Amino acid sequence: MKKHRGILGGIRGQTTLKNLLAFQDQHKIELRPSHISTCWNKASHFLPGERGIINKNPKIFLPLIDHTKEVIKEFNARSLAITIQSIAKISSLTRIEVDETLWKALEEEVVKIEKLEARDSSNILWAFAKVNYNSPELFSSMALKIMSNLDEFNSQDLANTVWAYATLDQQTPDLFEAVSPVAINKLETFTPQAMANTVWAYATLSHRAPDLFEAIPTIAISKLDEFNPQNMANTVWAYAKLSHEAPELFEAVSVTVINKLDSFNAHYLAKIVWAFAKLDHDSPKLFEAVSARVIRKRDKLNPRDIANTLWAYATLDHDSPDLFEAVSARVINKLDTFESQDITDTVWAYATLGYDNSDLFEAIVSEVVTKLEKWNGEDIIKLVWSLALIKANTKSITPIFSHLSTQHQANRLILSEEEMYQLHQAHLWFNIEGNENCLLPKDLTDKCLSVFVSREDIA
Q1: Which of 141, 185, 142, 136 is nearest to 160 (CA)?
Q2: pTM greater than 0.85 (yes/no)
Q3: What is the 8-class DSSP label of residue 189?
Q4: Residue 292 and residue 121: Cα distance in Å, rounded?
Q5: pLDDT tens, position by position, 283-320
Q6: Closest CA to 450 of 414, 410, 417
Q7: What CA–CA distance (Å, rounded) separates 8 from 11?
Q8: Separation of alpha carbons 299 and 306, rounded Å
Q9: Would you say the C-alpha torsion 131, 132, 137, 138 has a positive or negative sign?
Q10: Contact by Cβ (8 Å): 20, 46
Q11: Residue partners of 403: CB distance under 8 A and separation at least 6
Q12: pLDDT in tens, 119-158
């Protein structure tokens, strides 16, 4: 026992990663599983300070990895959890080389354990999610273990657990149903990050938990000053994703964002305004403040952020010509990185607010024409409808209608009533206002006309 404690003290007393790994190698024969897990834990605490050393030598941990694999079957639950969590921390912050066989061996040992402490369970799940190691067998077996002792989980354990399942897209409805009432009873102890991660997880898996989402706003509002920009953006995003209205929370978020605007980057602002628009929660002062901030930070916007931001302003009919003018050059410069939905949402936003920008629209049409085979019918029709609304140049759009015709004749164009309604409007504009010849087959135009007439009659 004295020697065991001496080795533990020796591990904990190392002041550099190099010395720690040398100590581990020197005492390899004497190390127990608890010593190895302590080595990994100690190594993780040298980060991020010694990240550069690891990145220069990604194989620096190979002797410790090999030793871990040799004795892994002797690990108890706590040593296993500490080891897994520590390796995940190091892997997420460096270019350490950890082969798949180690993660597979760790997984196999976890599955064998019949009972785990709450902290160990949540840390293990967090770790596998952090390194994107997806194992349905592992997560299914863990769910059964967790549900048997959920009351022992504290707020951080609960948040880490649902975050892990959502990160790896592991649908486990029974577990999420069981977590909800436990989380409600412990909401007062949730940190802002734990709260944000929890609602993010439910929304990511599209798992509705109305009681939980009703209970959170009161607690969140009381702690809103402690939320960082990411926590705030993820929280309102989650409510919007699940279409769960929380007007008092959104009002409080609006005020907080305005007061702390300089701490928000363009990505989080895009997420926030998208959430407000998705729930039809208008906040003119917020949108005015965000517009000015985004204009200054427009060079940091990625395609999805641009599309979400513009879509939000158009959805809430919030006029912001300076914003739309400012981001147009960014859109043109980055068009080759835009997905089809990004492009259609962007054009739709300009069209909805009546902003004419011929240079932008011509650049977009030129880009789209080269990638039509990769676009689905829904996005194409939304695009031509938007272009019709702003009366774009019909000559440049001819290839798009030709593509739709070809897709229809090949039975690859399946349209909803809404899409046929929009296509009829776009086609009328193309043929009448543009004075162009009809390019769509008669049977398709007849179907579109029929839908249009029936809707107009109802209206």
Answers
A1: 142
A2: yes
A3: G
A4: 45
A5: 999 999 999 999 999 999 999 999 999 999 999 999 99
A6: 417
A7: 5
A8: 10
A9: positive
A10: yes
A11: 372, 380
A12: 999 999 999 999 999 999 999 999 999 998 999 999 999 9
